[in-house]
Specification:
Blueprint: H1 2-19, E1 26-32, H2 51-59, E2 61-67, H3 73-82, H4 116-121, E3 126-132, E4 156-160, H5 177-203, H6 211-239, E5 242-244, E6 247-251, H7 258-272, E7 278-283, H8 304-326, E8 333-339, H9 371-374, E9 375-381, E10 390-392, E11 396-397, H10 401-408, H11 425-428, E12 441-446, E13 449-455, E14 464-471, E15 494-504, H12 523-539, H13 550-553, E16 573-574, H14 575-579
Parallel strand pairs: 1-7, 1-8, 2-10, 2-11, 3-4, 3-7
Antiparallel strand pairs: 2-9, 4-5, 5-6, 6-16, 8-9, 12-13, 13-14, 14-15
Helix pairs in contact: 5-6, 7-8
């Protein structure tokens, strides 16, 4: 009887202990788009106002060597979601185009990949992604949604499925300028020259050219020109839209108070789920071009349209922090802020207006693996758990968020695949933060191609970075690939180095002076260690279907989504305006 009583008391004690256990933490992961490390005030900017981002640094941990797994949107975001180098999921292009440009493309993050959202959903979390996705939508038809956020663990999605292209905002130009010149204007010029040559030879009596030949050439020229005009006319309503879950809420996309609309929805999601564990990924549309800002921010910054957009994004961050504070969720919420890659330095308008951000002292930018392209802001705040005002200088990656979030949520990491990210908590919670993370080596890919290797030796303060090839900046002497708008990764667009270029980032963070055998006695030894690491890494990479192949990138009409309004006009609707009582 006594034993039975003791057992009952023990069960009661365990039950009470379980009920009093600390609740699972919430997660708010904020990802800016194309924000440079030199833009926030907490990273040294003196003229761009970012008080809310700076607040995260003051109240949390600032990572000074936080790295994107890729310098382009699509592969970087795939790595962030899965904790894996994008080449492992097929999200690394072997061609020039390294991101998805069309809603009606068939490529995307494979359903076989495991995101942190899927694992947290299995742990009872409510999950949402608000803002930009850019990891695909459909596979075989426009209703399968095989790559959609809802197929990757997100209960709720509100935002753009592709990206914020300049083509989506009238008067902002086109990202397809080079392609149009190559695919349209060049054929038109060839046809025109052929027509003039044949006409001249026919007039001189040197060649008899049947009339149908001229007619066919004229029809071909007219067809090419018509296709161009049709593309320019229909691209915006077809490709630029907002989705709410799997339904179109606005087509074409309107920029009127767009940041406010998405921010209000993020706040509403937090309010709805204040009593249950939640994961919110707030994926900002800013500061990717086309730049936009509401009337409350337009013309208010010292940095033109870019500064206006950046300061409005900072306001958005502040609104989310305020909601957490209002609902008394601050102390049980891990907030993470970063950018998917460095600032796009080539974003300069025909009038000379700079529409890209600052990468601080670092070389290069979006699209290449110089430090300006991959070194990004990295801020984490969790009051009472992470020390306020702490700075960590060890190399970390946006892939690290996957194992960090999954472990904190009480889920197990997948055992059937390589996870390249490392749990950040041992590094962040150490009483005296170590100068070394678990990343002794990190690998920098330019799309499909291994471009550089980073090595932080355990017994050294040096951080070595070796480049196997570097992009050819154009024009000569520039800090970017201005003639192609973004740097490409192979062929005549790069220069291969033998021996590879070697930098010690601890002494030369600007990557201005590569070390040589004459300036570094261990030059060849260092290269050998890094080459062996690259070889070991390569053996872990398995061949998978290329999601960014030309076949998967092309626009496919049967994958196109289209809504209709009451007026009957195809591909036009505005449920967002109706939901707000007719106000934009």
């Amino acid at each position: 009887m006594k034993i039975l009583l003791l057992l009952l008391l023990l069960l009661l004690f365990l039950s009470q202990a379980e009920s009093q256990a600390a609740p699972k933490p919430n997660f708010v992961l904020i990802m800016a788009d194309d924000l440079g490390i030199g833009d926030p005030g907490c990273y040294g900017n003196k003229t761009l106002r970012t008080p809310n981002i700076d607040r995260l640094a003051k109240e949390g941990v600032k990572l000074t060597q936080h790295l994107a797994a890729s310098p382009l949107c699509t592969p970087s975001r795939a790595a962030f979601m899965t904790g894996r180098y994008p080449i492992r999921s097929g999200m690394a292009s072997q061609y020039r185009t390294g991101v998805f440009l069309f809603l009606a493309s068939s490529g995307g993050l494979p359903e076989s990949e495991v995101t942190f959202a899927r694992l947290l959903k299995n742990q009872g979390y409510e999950t949402a992604l608000i803002g930009k996705w850019h990891l695909g939508t459909h596979c075989r038809n426009n209703s399968d949604f095989c790559h959609h956020p809802s197929s990757h663990g997100f209960d709720y999605f509100h935002g753009i499925p592709v990206t914020n292209l300049r083509d989506c905002k009238p008067g902002q130009g086109s990202v397809f300028t080079s392609a149009i010149r190559l695919l349209v204007f060049v054929p038109l010029q060839v046809i025109a020259i052929a027509l003039l040559t044949l006409a001249a030879l026919r007039r001189l009596g040197l060649l008899h050219v049947p009339g149908p030949v001229f007619v066919c050439l004229l029809c071909l020229a007219a067809g090419i020109l018509g296709a161009l005009l049709g593309f320019l006319h229909y691209f915006r309503p077809l490709n630029c839209l907002l989705l709410q879950n799997r339904h179109i809420s606005q087509q074409p996309l309107s920029y009127d108070n767009l940041t406010q609309r998405l921010t209000e929805d993020a706040a509403a999601f937090i309010r709805r789920n204040a009593g249950t564990p939640f994961l919110l990924v707030f994926s900002c549309l800013q500061v990717h071009t086309a730049l936009f800002a509401s009337k409350d921010f337009a013309g208010k910054s010292q940095h033109g349209a870019y500064g206006d957009a950046a300061e409005e994004m900072d306001w958005s961050v502040g609104q989310i922090l305020n909601v957490l504070e209002e609902l008394r969720l601050t102390n049980n919420t891990l907030v993470y802020f970063s950018s998917d890659q460095g600032a796009h330095v080539e974003e300069v308008t025909t009038r000379g207006d700079i529409h890209g951000g600052s990468n601080g002292i670092y070389k290069g930018g979006k699209g290449n693996n110089w430090e300006g392209g991959v070194r990004v802001p990295g801020l984490l705040r969790w009051p009472g758990v992470l020390e306020a005002g702490l700075e960590v200088h060890a190399p970390t990656s946006n892939m690290d968020i996957f194992p960090t979030v999954v472990t904190l949520a009480g889920a197990a990491l997948p055992q059937d695949r390589v996870i390249d990210g490392r749990d950040l908590m041992p590094l962040l919670r150490s009483p005296s933060p170590p100068s070394h993370s678990e990343h002794e080596f990190l690998f920098h890919y330019c799309n499909f191609y291994l471009n550089a290797v980073r090595w932080h030796p355990r017994n050294s303060s040096s951080i070595w970075k070796v480049f196997l090839f570097t992009p050819n900046f154009t024009p000569e002497g520039a800090n970017g690939c201005f003639l192609t708008h973004v740097c490409f990764c192979h062929g005549r667009f790069v220069t291969r180095h033998e021996p590879p270029l070697l930098f010690d980032l601890s002494k030369d963070p600007r990557e201005s002076s590569p070390v040589t055998p004459s300036t570094e006695p261990r030059f060849w030894e260092i290269l050998e260690v890094m080459q062996r690491a690259a070889d070991r890494h390569a053996r872990t990479v398995q061949e998978v279907p290329n999601q960014l192949s030309l076949q998967n990138l092309l626009w496919k009409p049967w994958l196109q989504m289209c809504c209709s309004s009451a007026s009957g006009l195809s591909c036009q609707c505005d449920q967002e305006k109706q939901d707000r009582g007719g106000s934009p």
